[in-house]
Design brief:
Elements (H helix, E strand, L loop, with lengths): L1 E7 L8 E7 L6 H11 L4 E6 L5 E6 L4 E2 L3 H13 L7 E6 L2 E9 L5 E7 L4 E6 L2 H7 L13 E5 L3 E6 L3 H6 L19 E5 L7 E7 L4 E4 L3 H13 L12 E7 L7 E8 L25 E6 L1 E8 L13
Parallel strand pairs: 2-3, 4-6, 11-12, 13-15
Antiparallel strand pairs: 1-2, 1-18, 3-4, 4-5, 6-7, 7-8, 8-17, 9-10, 10-11, 12-13, 13-14, 15-16, 16-17
């Protein structure tokens, strides 16, 4: 079995969010995949099995658990499949635990893949959190550090995140999650992940940090599955223009700066089609309170291959688990 390391949401090596892409052909069982995800010790590892129809099946693991979907593994897998000649054209369909995900492929004049866009459908707002002082305290901040006019809300396009808008970069730099202070009523207790962010200013990107200790990721340098919900949030609260027919809204985001791993993510919000409901990769959330986003969101980025190797046969047991 071969693997590659890709830096996702990056235009140069040793930036962005590193990802292990394992081409296991379905040989590993869930326990084996989880063991290898712990071994790689990256935010996520994606295990890829190619389909005869030109798509692929993805199993996405953090060091702690398997996820129904995720952003940088999907985009990194698309670049890996393209490099292997398995992603011709401008559309790739991959199948994760949450369902089928469309990935649109931008190419340059020479046909090289320049950006992959993961379709996250219409995110769902799960809750609004009124306990502003307690949320600020969970991030080691004071209530005055929160953005004064924007709400704290939980959103999901497959993975739920508590979106916490902050006042300025100084507050963002000081933020640090105390996991035990997160009330289970604010966010799914199995996925206690927080995206702290600064709304976009004229000529400047969104700035963000994601804390996901419950997933085995204390801080993540680039979180694609959090930025789909963030794009819907920004449109909902008029912090970016709403898209019009045939004219999507584009927003750039920057994450991972405080980790020394700057990640550049692109958000594209468009008007949904007439039959497009809640994000298909949001099991159990659609219809929670009927609060489906007015827009459909894609999250895009570039990826750079930095390493490749082989998993040695002796490290995989006959039952498909790790040695």
């Amino acid at each position: 079995m071969t693997y590659e390391i890709w830096d996702v949401f990056a235009d140069a090596p040793l930036r962005g969010n590193p990802l292990a892409v394992v081409r296991d052909g379905g040989a590993l069982d869930a326990a084996g995949r989880q063991a290898w995800a712990r071994e790689f010790a990256l935010s996520e590892t994606v295990f890829v099995r190619e389909d005869e129809d030109g798509g692929a099946r993805l199993a996405i693991h953090t060091p702690q658990r398997e996820l129904p979907m995720a952003g940088h593994p999907t985009i990194g897998a698309a670049f890996s499949l393209d490099r292997a000649g398995r992603a011709a054209g401008d559309l790739l369909r991959v199948h994760a635990r949450a369902g089928t995900i469309a990935v649109r492929l931008d190419r340059d004049a020479d046909g090289r893949l320049s950006r992959a866009w993961m379709d996250q459908g219409r995110p769902v707002r799960l809750a609004r959190v009124a306990a502003r002082e307690r949320v600020a305290g969970a991030l080691g901040l004071d209530k005055v550090d929160l953005h004064p006019s924007l709400p704290i809300e939980a959103w999901s396009a497959g993975n739920p995140f508590l979106l916490v808008p902050l006042r300025n970069e100084e507050a963002l730099a000081r933020a640090w999650l105390r996991l035990e202070a997160l009330d289970p009523g604010w966010i799914d207790p199995e996925h206690r992940a927080v995206l702290a962010f600064l709304p976009p200013a004229p000529g400047a990107p969104v700035r963000a940090r994601m804390f996901g200790e419950a997933l085995g990721v204390v801080e993540d340098p680039g979180t694609g599955s959090a930025h789909g919900p963030l794009g819907a949030y920004l449109v909902r609260h008029a912090r970016t223009a709403a898209p019009t027919e045939g004219r999507p809204t584009l927003v750039e985001a920057l994450q991972g700066v405080e980790m020394g791993r700057p990640s550049r993510l692109s958000l594209r919000m468009r008007r949904p089609g007439p039959d497009q409901g809640a994000a298909s990769a949001t099991p159990g959330h659609a219809g929670t309170d009927g609060d489906v986003a007015e827009v459909a969101v894609e999250v895009g980025g570039h990826a750079v291959r930095i390493a490749a190797g082989t998993l040695l046969p002796d490290s995989v047991l006959p039952d498909g688990s790790g040695a």
